């Protein structure tokens, strides 16, 4: 399995972060991950095909929004909250608050949760 690469914290760009956060599915994924817990890809649910969900996770990873860790054949994802808050203070909180207020990303969740 190919090891995922992540941009260093000082390489994160506002343009890449905003582009990654411009999709409701990706905002939903960030909302799910905002509790700070690492999640297995199999736990994540969205109204898209698995290949499309994988694409959205890759976009978030490539922008430095998330970190992916592989363990055997399983992949786990976490939100890079500390890196994002250092690089772009207040951005993540503003996006999450606006998304909650507008119900953006509500269709994304965890397996077994509503």
Can you offer a commentary on this structure?
With 114 residues, this protein is α+β, with helices and mostly antiparallel strands. It has a single domain (11-102), classed as Arc Repressor Mutant, subunit A (Orthogonal Bundle). Helix content is 42%, strand content 16%. It contains five helices and five strands. The chain has helices at residues 14-20, 24-33, 50-62, 81-87, 91-101; strands at 39-40, 44-45, 66-71, 74-79, 109-110. A three-stranded antiparallel β-sheet has the order 1-4-3, covered by helices on one side. Strands 2-5 form a two-stranded antiparallel sheet.
Describe, in short, the structure shown.
The protein is α+β, with helices and mostly antiparallel strands and 114 residues long.
CATH architecture: Orthogonal Bundle
The largest sheet, given as strand count, sense and whether it forms a barrel, is: 3 strands, antiparallel
Going by CATH, what is the homologous superfamily? Winged helix-like DNA-binding domain superfamily/Winged helix DNA-binding domain
| Rg estimate, integer Å | 13 Å
Number of helices: 5
Helix-strand category: alpha+beta
**CATH topology-level name:** Arc Repressor Mutant, subunit A
Main CATH class = Mainly Alpha
How do the helices and strands follow one another from N- to C-terminus?
A: HHEEHEEHHE
Structurally, how many domains make up the residues?
Answer: 1
Number of strands: 5
Which percent bin holds the helix content? 40-55%
């Amino acid at each position: 399995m190919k090891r995922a690469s992540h941009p260093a914290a000082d390489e994160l760009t506002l343009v890449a972060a905003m582009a990654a956060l411009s999709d409701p599915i990706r905002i939903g994924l960030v909302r799910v991950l905002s509790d700070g817990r690492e999640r297995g890809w199999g736990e994540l649910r969205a109204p898209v095909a698995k290949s499309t969900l994988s694409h959205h996770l890759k976009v978030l990873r490539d922008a430095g929004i998330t970190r992916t860790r592989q363990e055997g054949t399983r992949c786990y994802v976490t939100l890079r909250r500390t890196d994002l808050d250092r690089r772009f203070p207040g951005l993540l909180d503003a996006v999450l608050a606006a998304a909650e207020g507008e119900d953006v990303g509500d269709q994304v969740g965890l397996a077994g949760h509503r």
